[in-house]
């Protein structure tokens, strides 16, 4: 699904965020990305959804060379991914239903199919009864569930989640992880950056640790491995 070959990222100020990275992420895999603050995790994630471009090397997603696609084609790439952020990024003037439906409307989905797809995915994340609510009427956990629903309504094969439980209390975070586990069981590849040691240690998947722009650890069913 993802192949990185000698990938580096150097920012204009000279900061080396990624240093000669080689990595393969298999189709259908669940990968945690861990490491101390400032280690390069955010740059790693941003390069996958082309918020940042590699300075050197080759980054392939499902065979597409992400570093070489033209800027005007980036929105098309992102429509094939599901991207979930720590701060939700919901549109406050739209209802839950409208926030999720918007992801289908921008790709030109048939109006007749949108309602079924939206309600199906809201049912999956446990928010079918909140479809008419606005984001400010929801808890933080509920808002994150809407964010997940919006990211997966197009049935992307690859989900990128950058600290999706970072702003949530522990109980809510576990509920969000149950949603991710169900998405994974349905066949999606998930790449999740996280500082949540309890989740990584209890829901075991492959773990890569990034420090100073390098992968220093790569373990199947690995542990978090850092004191926090």
Automatic annotation (TrEMBL):
GO terms for molecular function: ATP binding; ATP hydrolysis activity; transmembrane transporter activity. Pfam families: ABC_tran (PF00005). It is found in: Cell membrane. It comes from the Bacteria. Keywords: ATP-binding, Cell cycle, Cell division, Cell membrane, Membrane, Nucleotide-binding, Transport. InterPro entries: AAA+_ATPase, ABC_transporter-like_ATP-bd, ABC_transporter-like_CS, ABC_transpr_LolD-like, Cell_div_FtsE, P-loop_NTPase. GO terms for biological process: cell division. Homodimer. Forms a membrane-associated complex with FtsX. Part of the ABC transporter FtsEX involved in cellular division. Belongs to the ABC transporter superfamily. This is Cell division ATP-binding protein FtsE. It comes from Exiguobacterium sp. (strain ATCC BAA-1283 / AT1b).
């Amino acid at each position: 699904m993802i192949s990185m070959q000698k990938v580096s990222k150097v920012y204009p100020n000279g900061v080396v965020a990624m240093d000669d990275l080689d990595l393969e992420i298999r189709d259908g895999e669940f990968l945690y990305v861990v490491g101390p603050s400032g280690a390069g995790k955010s740059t790693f994630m941003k390069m996958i959804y082309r918020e940042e471009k590699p300075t050197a090397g080759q980054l392939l997603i499902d065979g597409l060379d992400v570093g070489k696609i033209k800027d005007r084609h980036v929105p098309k790439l992102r429509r094939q991914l599901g991207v979930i952020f720590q701060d939700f990024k919901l549109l406050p003037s739209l209802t839950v239903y409208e926030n999720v439906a918007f992801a289908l409307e921008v790709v030109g989905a048939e109006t007749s199919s949108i309602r079924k797809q939206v309600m199906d995915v809201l049912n999956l994340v446990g928010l079918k009864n909140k479809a008419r609510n606005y984001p400010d009427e929801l808890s933080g956990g509920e808002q994150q569930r809407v964010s997940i629903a919006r990211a997966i309504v197009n049935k992307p094969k690859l989900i990128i989640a950058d600290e999706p439980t970072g702003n949530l209390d522990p109980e809510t975070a576990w509920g969000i992880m149950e949603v991710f586990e169900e998405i994974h069981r349905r066949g999606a590849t998930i790449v999740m950056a996280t500082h949540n040691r309890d989740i990584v240690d209890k829901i075991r998947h492959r773990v890569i640790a990034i420090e100073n722009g390098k992968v220093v650890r790569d373990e199947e069913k690995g542990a978090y491995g850092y004191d926090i």
